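User: Can you help me understand a structure? I only have the sequence.
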Amino acid sequence: MSSTANGKNGTWRNWGGNVSARPARQVAPASVEELAAAVRQAREDGLKVKPVGTGHSFTAIAATDGVLIRPQLLTGIRDIDRESMTVTVEAGTPLKRLNAALAREGLSLTNMGDIMEQTVSGAVSTGTHGTGRDSGSIAAQIRGLELVTADGSVLCCSGTENPEVFAAARTGLGALGVITAITFAVEPLFLLRAREEPMPFDRVIAEFDQLWAENEHFEFYWFPHTGNTNTKRNNRSAGPEQPVGKLAGWIEDEFLSNGVFQVAQWAGRAVPAAVPAIAQISSKALSARTYTDIPYRVFTSPRRVRFVEMEYAVPRAALADALRELRAMVERSRLRVSFPVEVRTAPADDITLSTASGRDSAYIAVHMFRGTPYQAYFTAAERILTAHEGRPHWGKVHTRDADYLARVYPRFAEFTALRDRLDPDRLFQNDYLRRVLGA
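Assistant: Let's start by predicting it. Here is the structure, written out as C-alpha coordinates:
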Protein backbone atom coordinates (compact mmCIF):
# COMPACT_ATOMS: atom_id res chain seq x y z
CA MET A 1 0.00 0.00 0.00
CA SER A 2 2.99 2.29 -0.36
CA SER A 3 3.94 4.50 -3.25
CA THR A 4 5.86 2.89 -6.09
CA ALA A 5 9.52 2.84 -5.12
CA ASN A 6 10.94 3.08 -8.62
CA GLY A 7 8.55 2.91 -11.51
CA LYS A 8 9.63 3.15 -15.12
CA ASN A 9 12.66 5.47 -15.52
CA GLY A 10 12.66 6.33 -11.81
CA THR A 11 9.11 7.68 -11.89
CA TRP A 12 7.48 8.11 -8.48
CA ARG A 13 3.71 7.68 -8.08
CA ASN A 14 1.40 8.31 -5.14
CA TRP A 15 -1.01 5.75 -3.62
CA GLY A 16 -4.07 7.24 -5.33
CA GLY A 17 -2.33 7.00 -8.72
CA ASN A 18 -3.24 10.61 -9.60
CA VAL A 19 0.23 12.16 -9.05
CA SER A 20 3.58 11.17 -10.56
CA ALA A 21 7.02 12.78 -10.64
CA ARG A 22 10.44 12.11 -12.10
CA PRO A 23 13.06 13.23 -9.59
CA ALA A 24 16.63 13.83 -10.75
CA ARG A 25 17.70 11.44 -7.99
CA GLN A 26 16.34 9.57 -4.98
CA VAL A 27 18.24 9.19 -1.73
CA ALA A 28 17.50 7.07 1.34
CA PRO A 29 19.69 8.44 4.16
CA ALA A 30 20.42 6.10 7.07
CA SER A 31 21.12 8.87 9.61
CA VAL A 32 20.38 12.51 10.35
CA GLU A 33 23.96 13.33 9.27
CA GLU A 34 23.45 11.63 5.90
CA LEU A 35 20.17 13.46 5.42
CA ALA A 36 21.80 16.82 6.22
CA ALA A 37 24.59 16.01 3.75
CA ALA A 38 22.02 15.17 1.06
CA VAL A 39 20.30 18.53 1.62
CA ARG A 40 23.62 20.41 1.37
CA GLN A 41 24.58 18.47 -1.78
CA ALA A 42 21.23 19.22 -3.45
CA ARG A 43 21.71 22.88 -2.67
CA GLU A 44 25.18 22.85 -4.27
CA ASP A 45 23.78 21.09 -7.34
CA GLY A 46 20.99 23.64 -7.66
CA LEU A 47 18.27 21.02 -7.10
CA LYS A 48 15.08 21.32 -5.04
CA VAL A 49 14.50 18.84 -2.18
CA LYS A 50 11.34 16.97 -1.18
CA PRO A 51 10.92 14.27 1.47
CA VAL A 52 8.24 11.70 0.63
CA GLY A 53 6.52 9.19 2.90
CA THR A 54 4.26 6.43 1.62
CA GLY A 55 2.61 8.66 -0.98
CA HIS A 56 -0.79 8.76 0.74
CA SER A 57 -1.40 12.39 -0.23
CA PHE A 58 -3.68 13.01 -3.20
CA THR A 59 -2.04 16.39 -3.84
CA ALA A 60 1.39 16.89 -5.42
CA ILE A 61 2.76 18.05 -2.04
CA ALA A 62 5.69 15.58 -2.24
CA ALA A 63 6.34 15.75 -6.00
CA THR A 64 9.69 17.07 -7.23
CA ASP A 65 11.98 16.96 -10.24
CA GLY A 66 14.91 17.52 -7.86
CA VAL A 67 16.06 15.28 -5.00
CA LEU A 68 13.45 12.95 -3.51
CA ILE A 69 14.36 11.95 0.05
CA ARG A 70 12.96 8.58 1.10
CA PRO A 71 12.88 8.04 4.86
CA GLN A 72 12.57 4.25 5.02
CA LEU A 73 15.92 3.83 6.81
CA LEU A 74 15.05 6.47 9.42
CA THR A 75 12.62 4.33 11.39
CA GLY A 76 12.03 3.07 14.90
CA ILE A 77 11.67 4.42 18.41
CA ARG A 78 14.62 6.53 19.54
CA ASP A 79 13.58 7.08 23.14
CA ILE A 80 10.75 6.37 25.61
CA ASP A 81 10.53 8.76 28.57
CA ARG A 82 8.07 7.30 31.07
CA GLU A 83 8.47 10.24 33.43
CA SER A 84 7.35 12.86 30.92
CA MET A 85 5.21 10.26 29.07
CA THR A 86 6.72 11.01 25.67
CA VAL A 87 8.12 8.85 22.88
CA THR A 88 10.64 10.09 20.32
CA VAL A 89 10.40 8.34 16.98
CA GLU A 90 12.35 8.54 13.70
CA ALA A 91 10.55 10.44 10.94
CA GLY A 92 10.19 7.53 8.50
CA THR A 93 8.44 5.21 10.95
CA PRO A 94 5.07 4.07 9.61
CA LEU A 95 2.18 4.79 12.00
CA LYS A 96 1.36 1.08 11.81
CA ARG A 97 4.75 0.18 13.30
CA LEU A 98 4.62 2.98 15.87
CA ASN A 99 1.17 1.90 17.09
CA ALA A 100 2.22 -1.75 17.45
CA ALA A 101 5.52 -0.84 19.17
CA LEU A 102 3.76 1.49 21.63
CA ALA A 103 1.17 -1.20 22.46
CA ARG A 104 3.97 -3.66 23.26
CA GLU A 105 5.33 -1.06 25.71
CA GLY A 106 1.87 -0.60 27.26
CA LEU A 107 1.49 2.85 25.68
CA SER A 108 -0.73 4.56 23.10
CA LEU A 109 -1.34 7.82 21.29
CA THR A 110 -4.53 9.52 22.50
CA ASN A 111 -6.13 9.80 19.07
CA MET A 112 -5.32 8.79 15.49
CA GLY A 113 -6.67 8.80 11.94
CA ASP A 114 -8.49 5.90 10.31
CA ILE A 115 -5.57 4.51 8.32
CA MET A 116 -2.03 3.87 9.54
CA GLU A 117 -0.02 3.28 6.38
CA GLN A 118 1.56 6.75 6.45
CA THR A 119 4.94 7.65 7.93
CA VAL A 120 4.74 9.77 11.08
CA SER A 121 6.39 12.75 9.34
CA GLY A 122 4.11 12.54 6.30
CA ALA A 123 1.03 12.27 8.51
CA VAL A 124 1.82 15.29 10.68
CA SER A 125 3.14 17.44 7.80
CA THR A 126 -0.20 17.22 5.99
CA GLY A 127 -2.42 17.45 9.08
CA THR A 128 -3.69 13.85 9.26
CA HIS A 129 -6.46 13.57 11.86
CA GLY A 130 -9.12 11.29 13.22
CA THR A 131 -12.21 12.44 15.04
CA GLY A 132 -12.41 13.75 18.59
CA ARG A 133 -14.44 15.94 20.90
CA ASP A 134 -11.47 16.86 23.11
CA SER A 135 -8.43 15.30 21.38
CA GLY A 136 -7.02 16.70 18.17
CA SER A 137 -4.98 15.63 15.16
CA ILE A 138 -1.78 13.59 15.27
CA ALA A 139 0.19 16.86 15.00
CA ALA A 140 -1.62 18.24 18.06
CA GLN A 141 -0.04 15.43 20.11
CA ILE A 142 3.54 16.49 19.24
CA ARG A 143 5.78 17.74 22.07
CA GLY A 144 9.02 18.18 20.12
CA LEU A 145 10.44 18.13 16.59
CA GLU A 146 13.87 17.77 15.02
CA LEU A 147 14.33 19.00 11.46
CA VAL A 148 17.08 19.61 8.94
CA THR A 149 16.71 23.12 7.54
CA ALA A 150 17.74 24.54 4.15
CA ASP A 151 21.34 25.27 5.21
CA GLY A 152 21.82 21.64 6.28
CA SER A 153 21.75 22.37 10.00
CA VAL A 154 19.67 20.42 12.54
CA LEU A 155 17.06 22.47 14.39
CA CYS A 156 15.19 21.25 17.49
CA CYS A 157 11.95 22.86 18.54
CA SER A 158 9.29 22.47 21.23
CA GLY A 159 6.96 24.66 23.27
CA THR A 160 10.02 26.17 25.00
CA GLU A 161 12.81 25.79 22.38
CA ASN A 162 12.29 27.74 19.11
CA PRO A 163 8.55 27.97 19.93
CA GLU A 164 7.70 29.96 16.79
CA VAL A 165 9.10 27.15 14.63
CA PHE A 166 7.26 24.61 16.78
CA ALA A 167 3.95 26.43 16.23
CA ALA A 168 4.32 26.10 12.46
CA ALA A 169 6.42 22.99 11.81
CA ARG A 170 4.01 20.53 13.43
CA THR A 171 1.96 20.90 10.24
CA GLY A 172 4.72 22.30 8.06
CA LEU A 173 3.75 20.97 4.59
CA GLY A 174 7.41 20.12 4.01
CA ALA A 175 8.02 23.84 3.47
CA LEU A 176 10.24 24.59 6.48
CA GLY A 177 12.69 21.68 6.45
CA VAL A 178 12.92 17.89 6.49
CA ILE A 179 11.63 16.36 9.74
CA THR A 180 14.04 13.76 11.15
CA ALA A 181 12.39 12.90 14.49
CA ILE A 182 9.15 13.59 16.33
CA THR A 183 8.42 13.48 20.07
CA PHE A 184 4.81 12.54 20.82
CA ALA A 185 2.88 12.72 24.05
CA VAL A 186 1.66 9.21 24.93
CA GLU A 187 -0.44 7.68 27.68
CA PRO A 188 -0.85 4.26 29.27
CA LEU A 189 -2.55 1.82 26.91
CA PHE A 190 -6.34 1.96 27.29
CA LEU A 191 -9.41 0.26 25.86
CA LEU A 192 -11.99 1.78 23.54
CA ARG A 193 -15.52 0.55 23.10
CA ALA A 194 -16.76 1.05 19.55
CA ARG A 195 -20.43 1.17 18.74
CA GLU A 196 -21.26 1.15 15.04
CA GLU A 197 -24.86 1.46 13.89
CA PRO A 198 -26.89 2.68 10.92
CA MET A 199 -28.89 5.88 11.44
CA PRO A 200 -31.04 7.97 9.08
CA PHE A 201 -29.29 11.06 7.64
CA ASP A 202 -31.95 13.46 8.95
CA ARG A 203 -31.65 12.09 12.48
CA VAL A 204 -27.84 12.33 12.55
CA ILE A 205 -28.02 15.95 11.39
CA ALA A 206 -30.78 16.84 13.86
CA GLU A 207 -28.98 15.18 16.78
CA PHE A 208 -25.40 15.92 15.72
CA ASP A 209 -24.57 18.35 18.55
CA GLN A 210 -25.81 15.85 21.12
CA LEU A 211 -23.98 12.89 19.52
CA TRP A 212 -20.81 15.00 19.42
CA ALA A 213 -21.16 16.09 23.07
CA GLU A 214 -21.94 12.61 24.43
CA ASN A 215 -19.06 10.76 22.76
CA GLU A 216 -15.30 11.12 22.93
CA HIS A 217 -15.00 10.20 19.26
CA PHE A 218 -18.00 10.43 16.95
CA GLU A 219 -18.03 10.05 13.16
CA PHE A 220 -20.39 8.96 10.45
CA TYR A 221 -20.53 8.02 6.80
CA TRP A 222 -23.37 9.21 4.59
CA PHE A 223 -24.12 7.29 1.39
CA PRO A 224 -25.07 9.72 -1.41
CA HIS A 225 -28.35 8.94 -3.25
CA THR A 226 -29.69 7.53 0.04
CA GLY A 227 -30.99 8.84 3.35
CA ASN A 228 -28.74 6.39 5.18
CA THR A 229 -25.63 6.79 7.31
CA ASN A 230 -23.39 4.52 9.34
CA THR A 231 -22.36 6.04 12.67
CA LYS A 232 -19.40 5.15 14.86
CA ARG A 233 -18.92 6.12 18.51
CA ASN A 234 -15.67 5.33 20.30
CA ASN A 235 -15.46 5.82 24.05
CA ARG A 236 -13.03 4.69 26.73
CA SER A 237 -13.93 1.50 28.49
CA ALA A 238 -12.91 -0.24 31.70
CA GLY A 239 -13.11 -3.51 29.76
CA PRO A 240 -13.16 -6.39 29.41
CA GLU A 241 -11.56 -6.63 25.99
CA GLN A 242 -14.05 -7.92 23.43
CA PRO A 243 -12.34 -7.67 20.05
CA VAL A 244 -14.15 -8.38 16.80
CA GLY A 245 -13.92 -12.15 16.19
CA LYS A 246 -11.60 -13.31 13.41
CA LEU A 247 -14.40 -14.53 11.15
CA ALA A 248 -16.74 -11.62 11.87
CA GLY A 249 -13.84 -9.23 11.37
CA TRP A 250 -12.99 -10.79 8.04
CA ILE A 251 -16.61 -10.64 6.89
CA GLU A 252 -17.17 -7.02 7.98
CA ASP A 253 -13.75 -5.45 7.37
CA GLU A 254 -12.37 -7.44 4.45
CA PHE A 255 -15.28 -9.06 2.63
CA LEU A 256 -17.89 -6.29 2.97
CA SER A 257 -15.82 -3.12 3.54
CA ASN A 258 -13.12 -4.02 1.02
CA GLY A 259 -14.11 -7.01 -1.14
CA VAL A 260 -17.81 -6.50 -1.88
CA PHE A 261 -17.30 -2.72 -1.80
CA GLN A 262 -14.56 -3.07 -4.44
CA VAL A 263 -16.91 -5.08 -6.69
CA ALA A 264 -19.66 -2.50 -6.12
CA GLN A 265 -17.22 0.25 -7.16
CA TRP A 266 -16.27 -1.65 -10.32
CA ALA A 267 -19.94 -2.13 -11.16
CA GLY A 268 -20.68 1.55 -10.55
CA ARG A 269 -17.76 2.62 -12.73
CA ALA A 270 -18.94 0.31 -15.55
CA VAL A 271 -22.63 1.27 -15.26
CA PRO A 272 -22.95 4.72 -13.60
CA ALA A 273 -26.77 4.57 -13.85
CA ALA A 274 -26.72 1.66 -11.37
CA VAL A 275 -24.92 3.67 -8.66
CA PRO A 276 -28.01 4.85 -6.70
CA ALA A 277 -29.31 1.27 -6.48
CA ILE A 278 -25.86 -0.01 -5.46
CA ALA A 279 -25.65 2.77 -2.84
CA GLN A 280 -28.94 1.63 -1.29
CA ILE A 281 -27.52 -1.90 -0.92
CA SER A 282 -24.05 -0.73 0.25
CA SER A 283 -25.54 1.54 2.89
CA LYS A 284 -27.42 -1.41 4.40
CA ALA A 285 -24.62 -3.99 4.10
CA LEU A 286 -22.98 -3.28 7.47
CA SER A 287 -25.10 -4.11 10.48
CA ALA A 288 -24.79 -2.67 14.00
CA ARG A 289 -21.94 -4.04 16.12
CA THR A 290 -20.03 -3.21 19.30
CA TYR A 291 -16.53 -4.30 20.26
CA THR A 292 -13.83 -3.31 22.77
CA ASP A 293 -10.12 -3.28 21.93
CA ILE A 294 -6.88 -1.30 22.22
CA PRO A 295 -7.02 2.09 20.45
CA TYR A 296 -5.29 1.49 17.13
CA ARG A 297 -7.44 -1.58 16.44
CA VAL A 298 -10.55 0.54 16.95
CA PHE A 299 -9.50 3.83 15.34
CA THR A 300 -7.94 2.37 12.20
CA SER A 301 -9.12 -0.04 9.54
CA PRO A 302 -7.66 -1.44 6.32
CA ARG A 303 -8.40 0.54 3.15
CA ARG A 304 -7.75 -1.63 0.13
CA VAL A 305 -10.20 -0.02 -2.29
CA ARG A 306 -8.24 2.79 -3.97
CA PHE A 307 -9.90 6.16 -4.30
CA VAL A 308 -9.29 9.88 -4.77
CA GLU A 309 -10.38 12.21 -1.97
CA MET A 310 -11.10 15.83 -1.19
CA GLU A 311 -11.68 16.98 2.40
CA TYR A 312 -12.53 20.34 3.91
CA ALA A 313 -12.62 21.52 7.52
CA VAL A 314 -15.55 23.86 8.17
CA PRO A 315 -16.45 25.57 11.45
CA ARG A 316 -18.24 22.92 13.49
CA ALA A 317 -21.35 25.11 13.73
CA ALA A 318 -21.62 25.12 9.91
CA LEU A 319 -21.65 21.33 9.51
CA ALA A 320 -25.42 20.74 9.26
CA ASP A 321 -25.93 23.47 6.65
CA ALA A 322 -22.95 22.33 4.58
CA LEU A 323 -24.10 18.70 4.56
CA ARG A 324 -27.69 19.56 3.67
CA GLU A 325 -26.40 21.67 0.77
CA LEU A 326 -24.13 18.83 -0.35
CA ARG A 327 -27.02 16.38 -0.30
CA ALA A 328 -29.31 18.76 -2.23
CA MET A 329 -26.56 19.34 -4.81
CA VAL A 330 -26.10 15.59 -5.41
CA GLU A 331 -29.87 15.05 -5.65
CA ARG A 332 -30.48 17.75 -8.25
CA SER A 333 -27.36 16.92 -10.29
CA ARG A 334 -26.69 14.09 -12.72
CA LEU A 335 -23.73 12.97 -10.61
CA ARG A 336 -23.42 9.32 -9.65
CA VAL A 337 -21.49 9.09 -6.38
CA SER A 338 -20.63 5.56 -5.29
CA PHE A 339 -18.40 6.37 -2.29
CA PRO A 340 -19.70 7.48 1.13
CA VAL A 341 -19.05 10.96 2.52
CA GLU A 342 -17.08 10.83 5.77
CA VAL A 343 -17.79 13.29 8.61
CA ARG A 344 -15.49 13.83 11.62
CA THR A 345 -14.62 16.59 14.12
CA ALA A 346 -11.63 18.14 15.89
CA PRO A 347 -11.26 20.71 18.66
CA ALA A 348 -9.46 23.98 17.96
CA ASP A 349 -5.65 23.77 18.22
CA ASP A 350 -2.74 26.23 18.25
CA ILE A 351 -0.84 25.03 15.16
CA THR A 352 -0.38 27.80 12.57
CA LEU A 353 -1.66 25.96 9.48
CA SER A 354 -3.58 23.10 11.10
CA THR A 355 -7.02 22.79 9.52
CA ALA A 356 -8.39 23.17 13.09
CA SER A 357 -6.18 26.18 13.87
CA GLY A 358 -8.08 28.47 16.24
CA ARG A 359 -11.52 26.99 15.57
CA ASP A 360 -13.60 23.94 16.50
CA SER A 361 -13.89 22.09 13.23
CA ALA A 362 -15.94 19.50 11.38
CA TYR A 363 -14.46 17.61 8.45
CA ILE A 364 -16.40 16.67 5.35
CA ALA A 365 -14.55 14.25 3.05
CA VAL A 366 -15.81 13.34 -0.41
CA HIS A 367 -14.33 10.38 -2.30
CA MET A 368 -14.52 8.86 -5.75
CA PHE A 369 -13.37 5.40 -6.81
CA ARG A 370 -9.99 5.54 -8.54
CA GLY A 371 -10.46 5.72 -12.30
CA THR A 372 -13.92 7.36 -12.24
CA PRO A 373 -14.16 11.03 -13.26
CA TYR A 374 -14.23 13.05 -10.03
CA GLN A 375 -13.79 16.67 -11.19
CA ALA A 376 -17.47 17.61 -11.55
CA TYR A 377 -18.39 16.24 -8.12
CA PHE A 378 -15.36 17.69 -6.35
CA THR A 379 -15.84 21.10 -7.99
CA ALA A 380 -19.49 21.27 -6.91
CA ALA A 381 -18.63 20.11 -3.39
CA GLU A 382 -15.73 22.55 -3.15
CA ARG A 383 -18.04 25.43 -4.08
CA ILE A 384 -20.30 24.56 -1.12
CA LEU A 385 -17.46 23.99 1.35
CA THR A 386 -15.53 27.15 0.49
CA ALA A 387 -18.73 29.19 0.93
CA HIS A 388 -18.50 28.10 4.59
CA GLU A 389 -14.85 29.27 4.84
CA GLY A 390 -13.68 25.70 4.50
CA ARG A 391 -10.00 24.87 4.81
CA PRO A 392 -8.79 22.09 2.48
CA HIS A 393 -6.82 19.16 3.86
CA TRP A 394 -3.23 19.75 2.70
CA GLY A 395 -2.86 16.19 1.44
CA LYS A 396 -6.14 15.89 -0.45
CA VAL A 397 -7.37 17.18 -3.81
CA HIS A 398 -8.36 20.87 -3.85
CA THR A 399 -7.96 23.92 -6.08
CA ARG A 400 -7.30 26.65 -3.47
CA ASP A 401 -4.39 29.08 -3.70
CA ALA A 402 -2.47 31.37 -1.34
CA ASP A 403 -4.97 34.26 -1.74
CA TYR A 404 -7.87 32.11 -0.56
CA LEU A 405 -5.89 30.38 2.18
CA ALA A 406 -4.65 33.69 3.60
CA ARG A 407 -8.32 34.63 4.11
CA VAL A 408 -9.30 31.45 6.02
CA TYR A 409 -6.10 31.12 8.10
CA PRO A 410 -5.66 34.08 10.50
CA ARG A 411 -1.96 33.17 11.03
CA PHE A 412 -1.10 32.54 7.38
CA ALA A 413 1.36 35.48 7.18
CA GLU A 414 3.11 34.18 10.31
CA PHE A 415 3.83 30.91 8.49
CA THR A 416 5.09 32.51 5.28
CA ALA A 417 7.33 34.90 7.25
CA LEU A 418 8.89 31.92 9.05
CA ARG A 419 9.39 30.18 5.72
CA ASP A 420 11.16 33.29 4.38
CA ARG A 421 13.49 33.07 7.37
CA LEU A 422 14.17 29.30 7.27
CA ASP A 423 14.13 28.75 3.51
CA PRO A 424 14.80 32.09 1.79
CA ASP A 425 16.00 30.41 -1.43
CA ARG A 426 13.03 28.02 -1.57
CA LEU A 427 15.08 24.83 -1.51
CA PHE A 428 11.94 22.94 -0.41
CA GLN A 429 9.66 24.59 -2.98
CA ASN A 430 7.58 22.72 -5.54
CA ASP A 431 4.59 23.61 -7.72
CA TYR A 432 2.09 22.71 -5.00
CA LEU A 433 3.77 24.89 -2.35
CA ARG A 434 4.06 27.74 -4.85
CA ARG A 435 0.29 27.57 -5.31
CA VAL A 436 -0.77 27.23 -1.66
CA LEU A 437 1.86 29.45 -0.01
CA GLY A 438 2.62 31.88 -2.82
CA ALA A 439 6.00 32.48 -4.44
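Now, to help you interpret it: The mean pLDDT is 93. The two ends are 33 Å apart (CA to CA). Let me know which part you'd like to focus on.
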